[in-house]
Design a protein that fits this description.
Elements lengths: L1 H13 L8 H6 L2 H5 L3 H14 L4 H9 L4 E3 L5 E5 L4 E5 L5 E5 L4 E3 L4 H16 L4 H13 L6 H8 L5 H18 L3 H11 L5 H10 L2 E6 L7 E5 L7 H10 L9 H10 L5 E2 L2 E2 L6 H13 L9 H9 L2 E6 L4 H51 L6 H18 L3 H26 L8 H23 L15 E3 L5 E3 H23 L1 H11 L1 H6 L4 H24 L10 H14 L4 H21 L4 H18 L10 H4 L1
Helix pairs in contact: 1-4, 1-6, 1-8, 4-6, 5-6, 6-8, 7-9, 8-9, 9-10, 10-16, 11-16, 12-15, 13-14, 16-20, 16-23, 16-24, 16-25, 17-18, 17-19, 17-23, 18-23, 20-21, 21-23, 24-25, 25-26
Length: 644
């Protein structure tokens, strides 16, 4: 460490020194040290290179470390080479070709591992202090991938002159990581650990886990060193496991398995007997053990270890877990820090799960709100609702083929998708649904047939392959809070869109004449008709509105999901569950239902992340049980509408 500090100090002064001579001349003053270096002699060369301020010095150090430097046997000069025999000589200062030489006239410099380590430390310092920020960042990336004790001093020396705020913060953090692992001062290591204890990043947790690496051992007495725990039989392990550990350590005779005992008896059958006991009498465990013990007494087989012998051997030894890190204060600080981090990580995982649930709830709300309007007002079970979502997604895809700007195309696609699916919904209501009111089974079958027909039509037009609906570049990536909590910008956009739709629908239902008429027809169609409201017209507009909203939802969903002819089928079941669980005919109920189903599904997936199908199955079972106790949903209608 002292040598590394000397090198670091020398290198930090290098930028202030003027180049007094060229690189070749400087190296010639240390020709023997360069040609046949040792760890001690190479430090002098490195120090002079650092103080020279020569721009070619870092390149020379790198090539010297990689054994790419040659010395001429004729004049003793140093060169880089290229090509094959004869080799092209390259000037170490300018990089220009200066001639050729036979391979026999050159000697390749091959520094040993110790020398290469010193050169590596010096090279890191050069890179950490390089004027180019990208070079300094690359050096930090290299250290982060493979930190070592040799990097501690160069890293510390580079901090003082750092002018870039972001790089300075990263250097300081990386210095704490390297200090915590490789520092030679206990107090400095503990201080670094305490500073890192507020960081939940994966690399910081990896540092603490490396400091807490331990191995299990057993001995006659507890060994000296950093003992993590003393393991107890019956509390931490059973007797058989403990004795097997003793045997593996060579501290006890291995126990004989039933199979090995039987094989030993068979191998020692003489004239139908084993140790004087007839074979037909060896039909019990006690008899077999007795015969085996008799064989052991005469040295034919290893001794038989009884339970009493096993227990006595276990009692006479100490089973322990020992840290690889010898400093107990460091491991204690690392353990406290890691426990605190794991607590915060658990809370952050809950926050991340909440964001995932909120995101999924937004998607289900968008998919279901149109169905909630039609189902709640008209009582129509529209199995083709998912296909309106699919139509909206394909509308977005077609518009992107016409308008290549993804931002403009999405802004255009939203109203166009609404218009197309609104018209399709009105057409469907006029041609089919209006003739099937109050006939739920026929309505279900008819809309299911329309669903299949629309899927086939989409296949005929767009094919069976998934089509891309590309999001704008400003929606790429994710909002990352830390290594645990993040959410993609697309999901944030869908959440914002869901909130906007919630506000828009509430405004339409509460503040417009259409909304007043819809609510009137929902609560009492007969009374509404007697007041001059045309229920038939309201049903048509309501169905069109619900279908149009489904089209907009399709554009939003298509930004992150595959756009295929079957995509609507992925959301129809969840949409119906959302409406039924939340409360039929109620916007707030749809929001509550989407939240319950979204959070419930993400919660189940968290317990079983590898099987999303099982998560959906458990969710459906939960909902079936839920509606047994609350059949009208979370937010049930009141008055005459509830009775209907």
């Amino acid at each position: 460490m002292f040598r590394a500090l000397m090198i670091a100090c020398a290198l930090s002064l290098g930028a202030l020194s003027a180049a007094a001579q060229d690189l070749q001349s400087l190296l010639q003053t240390h020709a023997d040290e360069v040609a046949k270096p040792s760890r001690r002699s190479v430090e002098v060369v490195v120090q002079d290179l650092a103080q020279s301020g020569l721009e070619a010095a870092p390149e020379f150090l790198l090539r010297w470390q990689n054994k790419d430097v040659y010395q001429s046997k004729t004049d003793g000069l140093f060169y880089y080479v290229a090509g094959t025999d004869p080799l092209t000589l390259v000037d170490i200062e300018t990089g220009q070709e200066v001639g050729t030489a036979d391979k026999r006239d050159l000697e390749q410099l091959k520094p040993n591992a110790g020398v290469r380590g010193v050169l590596g430390s010096a090279l890191v310092q050069f890179q950490l202090s390089d004027p180019d920020p990208s070079t300094r960042t690359a050096a930090l990336d290299s250290i982060a991938r493979d930190p070592s004790a040799e990097q501690l001093a160069p890293l510390a020396a580079s901090i003082e002159g750092e002018t870039d705020t972001a790089i300075l913060a990263r250097k300081t953090r990386l210095l704490d990581i390297v200090t915590a692992r490789f520092g030679d001062d206990t107090e400095m290591r503990i201080t670094a650990i305490e500073r890192l204890s507020q960081d939940v990043s994966v690399d910081v947790r990896a540092v603490f886990n490396q400091l807490l690496v331990s191995t299990d051992g057993v001995a006659a007495t507890a060994p000296e060193g950093n003992i993590a725990a003393i393991r107890r039989v019956s509390k931490d392990m059973d007797a058989e496991t403990a004795y097997a550990e003793l045997a593996a350590a060579g501290l006890a005779q291995p126990r004989i398995t039933p199979e090995a005992l039987k094989a030993a008896l068979v191998a020692n059958i003489v004239e139908g007997q084993v140790a004087g006991i007839p074979v037909h009498q060896l039909d019990t465990e006690e008899a077999r053990i007795k015969a085996y013990s008799a064989l052991a007494e005469v040295g034919l087989v290893p001794p038989f270890v009884t339970d009493e012998v096993r227990d006595a051997a276990i009692a006479s030894h100490v089973f322990y877990t020992q840290y690889a890190e010898p400093d107990a204060e460091v491991t204690a600080a690392a353990l406290d820090a890691l426990n605190g981090i794991e607590t915060r990580v658990g809370l952050m995982q809950m926050a991340d799960l909440t964001l995932d649930g909120l995101s999924l709830a937004s998607i289900y709300f968008l998919a279901a709100i149109g169905l909630a309007i039609t189902f709640g007002v008209m009582g129509v079970i529209n199995m083709a609702h998912g296909e309106f979502i699919m139509m909206g997604a394909y509308t977005g895809y077609v518009i992107q083929q016409v308008i290549p700007d993804y931002t403009i195309s999405i802004l255009v696609a939203l109203p166009v998708a609404f218009a197309i699916t609104f018209a399709a919904g009105v057409t469907m209501e006029r041609l089919v649904i209006r003739h099937l009111y109050h006939r739920p089974l026929e309505t279900l079958l008819a809309t299911f047939g329309i669903s299949v027909a629309l899927q086939q039509l989409a296949k005929n037009i767009f094919g069976t392959q998934a089509r891309p609906l590309t999001s704008p570049s400003w929606l790429d990536g994710a909002l990352v809070f830390n290594d645990v909590v993040s959410i993609s910008y697309i999901r944030i956009a869908i959440f914002v869109l869901a909130v906007l739709f919630l506000g828009l629908i509430l405004y339409i239902l509460k503040r417009t004449r259409l909304g007043l008429e819809v609510r009137a027809v929902t609560q009492n169609p007969g009374m509404a008709a007697s007041m001059g409201i045309n229920p038939d017209r309201i049903n048509m507009l309501t169905f069109g509105l619900g279908s149009g909203i489904a089209g907009i939802a399709g554009v939003a969903i298509g930004l992150y999901a595959k756009v295929t002819s079957e995509m609507g089928a992925d959301y129809i079941v969840q949409s119906f569950m959302t409406v039924v669980v939340g409360g039929v005919g109620n916007v707030w109920g749809t929001l509550a239902g989407a939240s319950l189903i979204g959070f419930l599904q993400k919660g189940i997936e968290w317990f079983n992340p590898s099987n999303t199908l099982a998560a959906q199955t458990y969710m459906i079972l939960f909902i079936i049980i839920f509606i047994q106790f609350r059949p009208r949903g979370i937010v049930a209608l009141k008055g005459r509408a509830a009775g209907n």
